[in-house]
Amino acid sequence: MLRCALHVVMATGRGVARSSAARASARDPWCASRLLPRASVKLSSSSTKQPARELWGDRHGDSPQAARALELFLKRASPEAAAIVDEFLQARRRGASLDDFLLSSLRRALRPGEDPGPFVLEWQAFASGAIATNRNDVAAKAWTQWEAFGGANNRATPLLAFPAGETIEVASRVRLAGVARMDRCLSAASAAGLRAFVLASRDESVTRAASDKKAGATELSRVLSPRDVGSSVVTRWDVRLPWVEIVRECLHELMGAPDDASSLGHALSTLSGGDSAQLFECAAVISAEGAAPQIVHADTIQTAAGAQLFTVFVALQEIADHQGPTRFLPYTHTCTISHRELERDSPDAAFCQRTPSVSALLGVGDVALYDSRTLHCGGPHRVPANLAETRVERVLFYVSFKHALTTEAELSNRDVHGAGSILPSVAAHKMSLGVLRARRSPSGNAVSA
Q: Would you give the distance in Å from CA 308 to the centre of its chain?
């Protein structure tokens, strides 16, 4: 889900932010440039002549991330791997960027039994070290931020809903504060059925991913804090959902009646530039007991274009404080100062200490609707103080809609590795909000109730 936003290594797979500009800093496959300088990857060193530094960089059309990542890689590369890079740099034609070279080399489909070659193998080892280092660093930073917010003595106030029938106010609230709550958008029965399906889908995808990494990369999105510091146990997942009946029916139910001005569908239409807004994500996030908190992040960066994406989190069971409810930092979606201060925050997370937040302690079927630029994070999923409390995995169904005026250049699902959390087969339908509100199939046929 894009909620991993601006922070995760993609090396040979997908990263996690949404928008072309965001991917440049967040989903890029060379984010080892930001995660390492201290990577512990052991590659064969060499005194062999390295490619000349003037052969790559901004004046050649290379992104800063790609240039920095290559610089770090070459410090550890074998002569054979360095020679492959040098050959490209020496021979590349005008317009052939380092970014394109890395993408084509690292994502090239291999024939059965084919040797990927020294460059690919060594880059994968380099990136794996960066990922391992980054996961620990990110989780440790997230714990520091959580403590700064008050830790177990959470200073967040609850995210409250507006009275029924005030959906226009909900849309206005999202525009103003970046987030709003709507209650009982999905029935308890529908939520229970979808929850069971999501958990079964997660289990099946994890099993497939163990033997088929390509399938795993398609069905499971990267997520912030999948493991706690120093742990090998996965406790957080982001599952892309197929367009099957239970998913369709729950989404239609969430939208509400097409002519109901108090419905979630109407609020989304008001915010997203009308019913032509396109479904951009369709997935679920799951956290299990022991999950670390996430770092504070936004799903898309702030741009001159304004709002690009609106996301709906739907609670498929009641969410208690010990289950790590989503924390939102209101008013940060349009506040460039807040984003800048977070990026430059002190080691003790002073920004989090002084910034107000709200906690989405949702009931079954309740919704948090937010602008993707709003800073937010998932909390730690802890053992409850009262062991009599329900101890279950926290499951959130979510969908995102791309603003009707947002272009493909700004936000695209064409590349599964750089896309939102949606299966390629679902993204291919290019479903509009209007189609879903009208309870029609992607082909335009009405869907029976």
A: 15
